Amino acid sequence: MKPAPFEYHAPTSLADAVTLLARLENEGCDAKILAGGQSLMPMLAMRVARPDALVDLRQVPGLDHIRLQDGRIAIGAMASKRAAELSELVRERQPLFHAATRLVGHQQIRNRGSVGGSFAHADPASEYPAVALVLDMEMVATGPDGERVIPAAEFFVTYMTTALEPGEVLTEVRMPVLPPGTGWAIREITRRSGDLALAGVALTLRLKAGRCADARIAAFGIDATAVRLSEAEDALRGAVPTTESFARAGAVAAASLADPMSCIHASAEYRRHLVGTLLERALADAAARAH
Ligand SMILES: Cc1cc2nc3c(=O)[nH]c(=O)nc-3n(C[C@H](O)[C@H](O)[C@H](O)COP(=O)(O)OP(=O)(O)OC[C@H]3O[C@@H](n4cnc5c(N)ncnc54)[C@H](O)[C@@H]3O)c2cc1C
């Protein structure tokens, strides 16, 4: 299999990339941004995507930072997942994002695949969108009109579709550091190690005076985008963190899923079951970390 013909552009500054994307858009040319190519290249090869032009960001400087900025962690869109995995800042200050990164594909995929590429690609089975909802992350988009910040809750629109406008480049993602004493967990079921998840859950859990004060939970692999499990969050508020209350939250979460995806690998009912069980186990992980 080989891709359909396309023009190839490799701008050397963000300003040039944005100008180029705007020009191609005006000319009616369907242009796609190329980052690490770990999703886009297979899609081109299988001709699932047939853009007229590729705008490669790999020579654009200034998009691969990982730093503490105004008390939040800012990661440039072109930082590789491997760089995020190896970052002491991410590992120590945002362990949920760190753990999610280690679940993405294999090391070879993480060497090449960019952090921003996973957010822009918005695969419903990807770990990052769920973590973005849990952490209330912000996405920074740069386009012809400048920069805008999009909250995670508005960024993921539907299946592989984000709030990025044509011609906008995702340039940075921002996340809070995990407050001390906050528990976190991410669990998923995959057919093989490194595969995209059949279903998964990510969460943070805060305990106060021996009770669950606040939980933020999202599931992935079950709908067109990652989804917050707000009914389970409500069921946990004020509950004593026990095996029973975690099992109850899992049951509430499973029952709250309107219409889970179904495919040859996992039926809707199996996915519903997975979310309940994964949540129950992930809550126990998070409670142990919160203590
Ligand atoms: C074997 C295998 C296993 C995998 N397993 C997982 C997994 O478990 N979990 C998971 O989440 N992913 C998984 N992936 C996908 C992988 O994580 C990709 O790296 C990621 O989806 C895309 O990042 P990329 O930098 O390679 O982007 P690309 O493939 O280059 O681009 C992906 C899409 O995002 C757009 N895009 C990229 N960067 C930007 C930007 N800065 N601004 C605007 N648009 C942009 C592109 O135009 C394209 O539409 C797997 C891939 C493979 C091949």
TrEMBL record:
<dbReference type="Pfam" id="PF00941">
    <property type="entry name" value="FAD_binding_5"/>
</dbReference>
<dbReference type="InterPro" id="IPR002346">
    <property type="entry name" value="Mopterin_DH_FAD-bd"/>
</dbReference>
<dbReference type="InterPro" id="IPR051312">
    <property type="entry name" value="Diverse_Substr_Oxidored"/>
</dbReference>
<dbReference type="InterPro" id="IPR036318">
    <property type="entry name" value="FAD-bd_PCMH-like_sf"/>
</dbReference>
<protein>
    <submittedName>
        <fullName>Xanthine dehydrogenase family protein subunit M</fullName>
    </submittedName>
</protein>
<dbReference type="InterPro" id="IPR005107">
    <property type="entry name" value="CO_DH_flav_C"/>
</dbReference>
<keyword id="KW-0274">FAD</keyword>
<dbReference type="InterPro" id="IPR036683">
    <property type="entry name" value="CO_DH_flav_C_dom_sf"/>
</dbReference>
<keyword id="KW-0560">Oxidoreductase</keyword>
<dbReference type="InterPro" id="IPR016169">
    <property type="entry name" value="FAD-bd_PCMH_sub2"/>
</dbReference>
<feature type="domain" description="FAD-binding PCMH-type">
    <location>
        <begin position="1"/>
        <end position="180"/>
    </location>
</feature>
<dbReference type="Pfam" id="PF03450">
    <property type="entry name" value="CO_deh_flav_C"/>
</dbReference>
<keyword id="KW-0285">Flavoprotein</keyword>
<dbReference type="InterPro" id="IPR016167">
    <property type="entry name" value="FAD-bd_PCMH_sub1"/>
</dbReference>
<dbReference type="InterPro" id="IPR016166">
    <property type="entry name" value="FAD-bd_PCMH"/>
</dbReference>
